[in-house]
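User: Can you recover a sequence for this backbone? Please restate the input before giving your answer.

Assistant: Of course. Working from this structure:
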């Protein structure tokens, strides 16, 4: 009903998930991962910001064992798998940052290509765990030490747009699919228009919303 639609939209804008089963955020499905990022950031600020390396490692190992257990059980439900994965990845990222590991200086295109190649892998517990435990952390670690001065501005732009693009792309693409049924144009044209709309929305979101909020938070 229209009332339910308004209620679900309001909850989604406030990042309050639906816990009645199914998608946590029906109108913007990928928001489940952003929700868990908010949770794990709050957990870090409240508990882990002063944690020692040994304590962080314990959290990483506990979350990793939980992920292995879910993979063995074949449970990839976002409410369990997603939460543990956010705790594992975020805490491991903090641990790697604090460790200041010395990594080989490689072209940034190499780990970027490897990361993109994982999207073509079949969905299987082994490949999922390999990406979460090894490929993604190693790729990010190599990118952090990459010698990429020639295309540095391009990498900066991609990084800046990545968050708003991820946060906004799903409803835009869904709207494009809905319009496809009513506008007599080739699918490729609709798809290209949807991609362009996603990029424009991401740029506007970064410059008009995200950047001013970050600036205000720093000055405050």
């Amino acid at each position: 009903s229209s009332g339910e639609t308004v209620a679900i939209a309001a909850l989604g804008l406030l990042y309050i998930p639906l816990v009645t089963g199914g998608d946590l955020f029906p109108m913007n499905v990928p928001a489940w991962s952003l929700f868990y990022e908010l949770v794990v950031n709050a957990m870090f600020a409240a508990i882990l910001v002063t944690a020692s390396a040994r304590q962080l490692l314990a959290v990483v190992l506990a979350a990793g064992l939980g992920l292995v257990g879910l993979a063995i059980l074949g449970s990839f439900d976002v409410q369990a798998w997603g939460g543990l994965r956010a705790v594992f990845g975020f805490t491991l990222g903090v641990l790697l940052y604090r460790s200041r590991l010395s990594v080989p200086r490689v072209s940034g295109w190499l780990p970027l290509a490897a990361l993109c190649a994982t999207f073509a892998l079949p969905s299987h517990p082994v490949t999922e765990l390999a990406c979460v435990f090894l490929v993604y952390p190693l790729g990010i670690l190599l990118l952090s030490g990459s010698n990429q001065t020639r295309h540095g501005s391009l990498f900066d732009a991609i990084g800046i747009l990545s968050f708003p693009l991820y946060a906004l792309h799903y409803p835009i693409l869904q709207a494009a699919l809905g319009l496809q049924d009513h506008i007599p144009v080739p699918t490729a044209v609709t798809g290209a228009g949807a991609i362009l709309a996603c990029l424009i929305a991401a740029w506007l979101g970064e410059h008009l919303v995200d950047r001013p909020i970050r600036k205000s938070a720093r000055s405050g």
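That completes the design. The longest helix spans residues 187-219.
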